[in-house]
Amino acid sequence: MPTAAKAKISRISIEDVKKRLDGLTFVDARSATALSRNPVQVPGAIHVPAKKIGSALKRLPRNRTLVTYCT
């Protein structure tokens, strides 16, 4: 049985985001309540509340760098 690759978790600056925009997938990790209060999202972002990220990993792209954000 193949072993899962370990994810590298690190912070990324806005400047780095701008440089690498084409290779990134944004995950809006705000709760549904927070999203309804401020529905502005990064264009193309996938909404997955932080509490559900573990169960949503299967539907997130594995071939791109994921950038999560919240309030």
What does it look like?
This protein is α/β, with parallel strands linked by helices. It has one domain (20-69): Rhodanese-like domain (Oxidized Rhodanese, domain 1), CATH 3.40.250.10. Helices cover 24% and strands 17% of the residues. The protein contains three helices and three strands; from the N terminus they run αβαβαβ. The protein has helices at residues 14-20, 32-37, 53-56, and strands at residues 24-28, 46-47, 65-69. It has a three-stranded parallel sheet with strand order 2-1-3, with no helix packed on it. Strand 1, helix 2 (32-37) and strand 2 form a beta-alpha-beta unit.
What topology does this entry show?
Blueprint: H1 14-20, E1 24-28, H2 32-37, E2 46-47, H3 53-56, E3 65-69
Parallel strand pairs: 1-2, 1-3
**How would you sum up the global shape?**
globular
CATH class: Alpha Beta
Helix/strand-derived class?
Answer: alpha/beta
Radius of gyration: 13 Å
Low-confidence stretches: none
- The helix content is 10-25%
Return the string of H and E elements: HEHEHE
Percent strand equals: 15-25%
CATH topology: Oxidized Rhodanese, domain 1
| Separate helix tally | 3
How many domains in all? 1
- Main sheet strand line-up: 2-1-3
| Extended strand count | 3
End-to-end distance: 39 Å
Give the full name of the CATH homologous superfamily. Rhodanese-like domain
| Main β sheet profile | 3 strands, parallel
Which architecture would the CATH scheme give at its second level? 3-Layer(aba) Sandwich
| Assembly state of the chains shown | single chain
Q: What is the typical, i.e. mean, pLDDT?
A: 88
